[in-house]
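This week, think about what follows.
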Amino acid sequence: MTRQDISLNDRYDLDKIQVLLNGTQALVRLMMMLRARDAAAGLNTAGYVTGYRGSPLGAVDMQMTRAAKQLSAAQVTFQAGLNEDLAATALWGSQQAELRGEGKYDGVFGLWYGKGPGVDRSGDVMRHANMAGTSPHGGVVMAMGDDHTGESSTTLHQSDWAMVDAYMPIVSPAGVQEIMD
């Protein structure tokens, strides 16, 4: 068995396969991996990440800010939303430009993050964006920061049912590796 040197600084080095990172850092790396995958396929894509800082996933904005240099190099823009609804609407807009042939990229891949009460208020944009679809080389993943025990939110929440109601597919990763996969 060979020994591998692993450093915490490797988390966003896409040449490294085995890295140490937590779930929110995995979302940062995922955005960078998407850009690298598209570039290898000859596509000029960009990424857009937005969401609500008060979410139980609120550390996402902290990790995106810390990785600003690496994200910029990967053509990924992070912009914290004022609330979940405005963030979801901005992501919907990032998909519409390419649908009309007006985009400056081959597609925009996106990540939205928010908490349960914001999922409720964003139902209209989520439903309409899902029905409108994305550009062929675009797409959006929505990370739900549910608070089942009501520790950091005004209400207990489970977003799965809102996704089912909007006909949106649900992926429920059980760990950091499943986020990457």
Notes: The mean pLDDT is 89. The helical segments are 23-40, 59-66, 68-73, 84-99, 116-121, 123-132, 160-165, 176-180. Strands lie at 45-51, 76-78, 107-115, 139-145.
